[in-house]
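1st attempt posting a full record on here, be nice pls
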Amino acid sequence: MTREKKNLLLISANFPPVSTSGVHRMIRIVRYLHEMGVQITVLTADEKTLTKSFKYDDGLLEKLPPDIEVVRVPAFQGIKRLLDLKNRVRASNGDPRSTMAATASKRPSPNGKKQKSLLRRTFDAITLNLNSPDNYAMWIVPAIREGRRLIAERGIRNILSSSPPGSAHMVAYYLKKQTGVHWIADFRDPWAKKEWRNPEMTAFKRRVNMRYEAKTLRSADRIIMNTPEMLDIYLQAMPELAQRAEVVPNGYDPADYQMLPSPPSRNGGPFCLLHTGTLYRGRSPVPFLRAWGEAVRSGCMPKSAMRVKFVGSVSNFAAEIEALSREYGLGDWLELVPPVPHQQCLVEMTRADALLLLQPGTRIQIPAKIYEYIAVRKPIFAISPPGVISRMMQEYNLGWWADADDIDQIREALLDMAQFFKSQQGHWPINASVLEAFDGRRLVQQIGAMLV
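the predicted structure (as tokens):
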């Protein structure tokens, strides 16, 4: 008797060629489940119909099996029209003959700061709350409709939704409710329990997130968490999850590293510390730069000991980086490089001597780039609160760690790094068992075992 082929509807709001950190996990899931013989259909958003902007990397499409069907569903356009109207109000020149313009003008508040007009505040409240649980809200209903069609026409028995954003889980929740399919919910980061503050998070949005996070945890047949610390947080609130939840880390894709050039040998001179990816919200380089500057100013560390390179967008912190560079005279030793395609980013990692990880503000989240850092076998300098990252750094002997709130500790770690590269020429052994633990092919096999 021929065994029936397993099938899966993968629900992810982001998918290549959109370039976000989360899509790399989706690529691994598609690539290696397909290798295991699973028939996969991807349900994602038509990003051109959403209210946010995206970065693209067409090279990511080359990593997908050619016979994978990707169904891109447009979002409703009502919210975009409302945002266009709000932007027109913001752009108003204050002409008193225009009622809207006159109403939209800013008035000084008692403390001297400019105060938003009633119309502006109303527009902000409406648009922020309509984007609940997140900026993909207008995609949810069309995605449910299309998902239901795909499940019925193709006899799909499994769905896997991955967040963030949480909208993917909302789509999966209703598909589970309406069709009874086997549902795997993948939490790459916490949802309502995330520790990073979102400036767009209204009280209404928070209630929506909490409600649908609970619905997801109660309704999904299997639940995946990215770290043991994340799972522990959820188990404290819902101990019954222990029967359905397990940890599957992000990991790295071994195929990405097969054609990378050999790392250059060190020949003395300054060591290169590299950070890749976007600096956003709490991921601030300021404590690191200040600690570096103070080490140089105090004479403990010569400027010529280290070069620092940021590859990726730093727009949110560009002014602070420039100011600190001037204050401490770091300009000749600090390089900012615009975003590059993912494969080029991996090449940059192989050329560096050590890799910088910035994750302040959260004890239970871990950026996906740490696994790529591990895969290129370079020492890591991680700056974060005590928690999952400090535990990983110690458990796997990955390099140096410092508390994000302790400038002195960051400075001491930098001094130790400088001494290490001066005396040992930078060889840092990464144990083969660490590479095995985070091999993406093996981790996807763990997910494949959850399919029915």
